[in-house]
User: Fold this.
Amino acid sequence: MTYRCFFYDENAYFFEGMKASISSLFRETRNVSFSLTDDYEQLIDRTKSRIEGNQHLWLFCDLDMLPMERFVMLNRMQGCYKHQNKKLVIMLSNHHMPFFLTIYNLFPQAHWLMKNEKMEHIPAFLNGLNQKKANENRFSYSLIDYTRNTLRSGDVHHLISCNEWWLIEEILRGKSLSNIAHQADTDIRKISYVKRKLMKRLNIKNNIALFEKFKWLTPSR
Assistant:
């Protein structure tokens, strides 16, 4: 079997650590290759690449690396995980955790890895990823633990819908509600109602606080 591991990331140290862990998993075979890029179009090209026979492609995507508009960019990647031998791993940071269930809703068949996961838990994640069961999701240990505790506590006020995510991105891009309504060909009162309801639920007082809450949606570079 041949394994290709493609990382959409800019952290070379993280890449080298994951490369060592994956190489250890496949130490009995030499047919493992690795590549690292911060070019989004290269990521899209990999998602569209054909997989044949005993080839396997693992795509590791750092959510923070996605360019603006992230909601649109994620939707461009929707088809990449539908092939049994092609697996997409979305890599998250701590600031994504309160909104994980919303992000998960976009990619219910993807796999999820915290970038600051303890090294002792990485082999179990990779072993699970390598299992032949195509329809099982893999989640890193700390993400499972966080989600379990959140659901148990009932602290789910951070949940936002895909439509709310889209609206937040448009606001963060500096668009007025009237421009957003015109673009979406809908009544501005509906847009305004969704925004007011969201901000009340999240206890956000103004657009500055909204930006601070969702600044992870904007590219850091």
User: Anything to note?
Assistant: The chain has two domains: 2-152, 162-217. The first strand starts at residue 2 and ends at 8. The mean pLDDT is 83. The two ends are 37 Å apart (CA to CA).
